[in-house]
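Each letter names a residue; the fold follows as tokens. Both lines appear below:
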Amino acid sequence: MNILYEDNHLVAINKRSGEIVQGDKTGDVCIVEEVKSFLKKRGNKPGNVYVGLPHRLDRPTSGVLLLAKTDKALARVNKLIHDREFDKTYWAIVRNKPPKDSDRLVHWLQKNEKQNKSYASDIEKKGWQKAELEYKVAASSDNYYLLEIKLLTGRHHQIRVQLSEIGCPVRGDLKYGFERSNRDGSISLHARVLEFIHPIKNEPIKITAPAPKENLWQILEGKAL
């Protein structure tokens, strides 16, 4: 487990692609249970350990994931997220160059539960949720572009579907139009930075997750720094 930040109230880890955040029908061991077990063992605690989950990352996505160690911290982080005072920056690798070097994307999304997939519209539709993000090209290699994305709303598969809508599906993301999968089953989407005011200490916190060790990520990360 790669811990990026920890205090008495919060713990943040660098999630690997393929790890599942919460238990689901697959029955695979999830991060919440892994963190509980780790904290219990490390602290030699006899009873149950509290771990709350204020936000999620898709299973094939990597990067910084914040968890709460108390119900008080969870409630306050939830409020930060609700009030849009919880800033998330993602990195995505795409093959196609975006229409603009930087832009603000606005779509309306609808989730199909059966397919576990979201669909986007350029025009407002009744019952569909507004989705907004800002991106800029942060680096490039011979065949790929690294986009830095500021997420302004938190919708299901938002980055994946919005980038697909402008002809830039995330590398490896078969569900949203990339032509082939990554060898390790990941998609090249990484939660790079979380920034917020600590809900208990009231001080600014910035947590950065190093990119995955894969060669292309390392090349683009080096160019972006």
